[in-house]
Write a structure and sequence with these properties.
By secondary structure, this protein is of the alpha+beta class. The chain is built from 3 helices and 10 strands, in the order ββαββαβαβββββ.
């Protein structure tokens, strides 16, 4: 299925109500399992509490992700979540590929895609602008170098609100 692979676990999962869990805590719980399986947890979204929640995982591997990968990860992650029970209330688990416009969140994401075109939005303006579209040139000491319209910008990764690859069509 390639870049658009997506799998929805149809069953609902229930957990003990122990208070709110953060996305970072869920990431730390799941990353080791996914790494052992040969997958990278690119991103996750958690809308938990207040009725039916959603836990959406975006996974990748060097040769890409297909529907069978999403199913495999969904079943394995469901087992981990059932045992650890970190999420209060009901929720639906979705596992998907990051897509062609994959998000870039961590320094290693930017480094992996040096030479690719990306769109970056900063939390606060740099030299009068918040949005940049250009080629990723490098990553060093918490900054990403990006060439935009012939000019080189150093963007602090901690100041980036959103960053995504621009799909090559």
């Amino acid at each position: 299925m390639g870049p658009g692979a997506h799998f929805l676990l149809g069953s609902q999962t229930r957990a003990r109500d122990r208070g709110r869990v953060t996305e970072e805590e869920i990431r730390q719980l799941l990353e080791p399992t996914l790494a052992t399986m040969g997958y990278e947890l690119v991103d996750l979204e958690a809308r938990i509490g207040g009725g039916k929640g959603l836990l959406r995982l975006y996974i990748d591997k060097p040769e890409g992700v297909n529907l069978e990968d999403c199913e495999r990860v969904s079943h394995q992650v469901s087992g981990v979540l059932d045992v650890e029970d970190p999420i209060p209330g009901e929720y639906v688990l979705e596992v998907s590929s990051p897509g062609l416009d994959r998000p870039l969140k961590r320094p290693e994401h930017f480094e992996r895609f040096i030479g690719s075109e990306a769109k970056v939005a900063l939390r606060a303006p740099l030299e009068g602008r918040r949005r940049f579209r250009g080629t990723l040139e490098g990553v060093e000491e918490g900054y990403v170098a990006m060439r935009v319209d012939g000019e080189l910008y150093r963007l602090r990764i901690a100041d980036i609100d959103k960053a995504r690859l621009v799909p090559e069509l």
